[in-house]
Amino acid sequence: MKQRPGLVLTFLLAVGSGAILPPGQPAYADDGKLPIQDLRVFAEVFGRIKQDYVEPVDDRQLLEYAIRGMLTGLDPHSSYLNPEEFKELQVGTTGEFGGLGIEVGMEDGFVKVIAPIDDTPAQRAGVQAGDLIIRLDDQPVKGMSLDDAVKVMRGKPGSEITLTIVRDDQDKPIKIEIVRDVIKVVSVKSRMLEDGFGYIRISHFQSRTTEDMLKAISKLKATAGGRLKGLVLDLRNNPGGVLNGAVAVSDAFLTEGIIVYTNGRIDDSRLNFTAAPDDVLEEAPIVVLVNGGSASASEIVAGALQDHKRAIIMGSQTFGKGSVQTIMQINQNAALKLTTARYFTPSGRSIQAEGIKPDIELSEVKVTSVETSEAGRLKESDLARHLQNGNAKSKSKSKAQAGKDGDREEDRQSPLAEKDYQLNEALNLLKGIYIMQKQG
């Protein structure tokens, strides 16, 4: 056997200290000792690369590759973070970072779009949840790690990149050109849909999400005269984010019980999160919109509100990311993002690889208005000698006035059903619940 670099021998001795097995013993001992035979194979491979690879390779670089390989082989969400990546992760939770504006994962060796982030270059260019990215400019994605692919997608604001994408409803790959930009995510948006019915859109869970949502709800309640008749909480294409944000958002609408709990191998990974006794909407009905781009933290919210029967979940089955990643800083220059537990809804359902099934499933469809002609269609009021209404307070509108009313700006705007069919259905459901509550 040829002499190997001293670093390899030192490494083997260091990791094998106190764990050397006699010949003939299995590599993986039941007592938890290190698998020495496999470590010797690692050392042999390390040495051959150092000696025989076509170009010299730095020891630290090789060891980093080995660490990344270990983590990548575990699951799609565990990874090694060098100083730059660790910093970007911390910045991402505050809502400002550089890139295209997409949350991504790996599937079959390709980059899969979990969800485009609202108001970002990727969303404006037409990138959709579920897209598989197979090329970045002229570089095939196959063979890249997720970290490498993300590095290629990031770049100087104003520079362009072309994504080649495979989409389920397309016969052949499509190309999308995107101009990189600094991504500033506003995680909460709100508006009134109709009198008394509010709308809250959460695009990403960040450190300030709950605070921003509570402010938005206060404004909606003030507009509605102090109390909302109902709320649509839109979590479609929300890829997740900060766990505490999801817990606090759920807590805002619940008065008791478990919100979510985690379970893993070590005691520190077993956590229960419970609700405080207050409901910011004072029991007003809630409809939560979800789809295949709703993942992780957004699934926690949907699962908690569904299990507590506090909201009706509408849309399509969610992504199914039900694992917990813990950031472990191993020194000043590196950290691990390691999957340490699974999420469970209050009723004990695991979100992992299953997702949240909506109470009411809705397809993502587009609706167009069908114009009908009123010419030739008779009404009672058109008949000769028809009886008057009999209500002294009721006054029929003149044709001239009716024409003026029909020309109002809001009547010329597209109906909500045309703009967003699922949102329109959520609003209709809220109206029905409100009417039934009043009658009850």
CATH topology of one domain: 2-enoyl-CoA Hydratase, Chain A, domain 1
CATH superfamily of one domain: 2-enoyl-CoA Hydratase, Chain A, domain 1
- Determine the mean pLDDT: 86
Which architecture of one domain per CATH?
Answer: Alpha-Beta Complex
What's the Cα radius of gyration? 28 Å
Strand content: 15-25%
Query: What is the number of beta strands?
Result: 19
Give the N-to-C terminal Cα separation.
86 Å
How many strands, which pairing sense, and closed or not: the largest β-sheet? Answer: 6 strands, antiparallel
Helix content: 25-40%
What oligomeric state do these chains adopt? single chain
Q: What are the low-pLDDT stretches, counting only 5+ consecutive residues below 50?
A: 1-29, 398-412
| Content-based structural category | alpha+beta
CATH class division of one domain: Alpha Beta
**What shape does the CA trace take?**
globular
| Count of DSSP H/I helices | 13
Can you tell me about this structure?
The chain has 440 residues and is an alpha+beta fold. Among the domains are: 20-57; 97-184, Pdz3 Domain; 188-361, 2-enoyl-CoA Hydratase, Chain A, domain 1, CATH 3.90.226.10. It has 13 helices and 19 strands. The chain has helices spanning 6-15, 36-52, 59-72, 83-92, 121-125, 146-153, 209-223, 243-251, 297-307, 399-406, 409-412, 416-419, 421-439, and strands spanning 79-81, 96-99, 102-107, 110-116, 132-136, 139-140, 160-166, 174-179, 181-184, 188-194, 197-202, 230-234, 258-264, 271-274, 286-290, 312-315, 323-331, 334-344, 360-361. Strands 3, 4, 5, 6, 7 and 8 form a six-stranded antiparallel sheet that branches. β17 (323-331) and β18 (334-344) form a beta hairpin. The chain is globular and about 105 Å long. Residues 1-29 and 398-412 have low confidence and may be disordered.
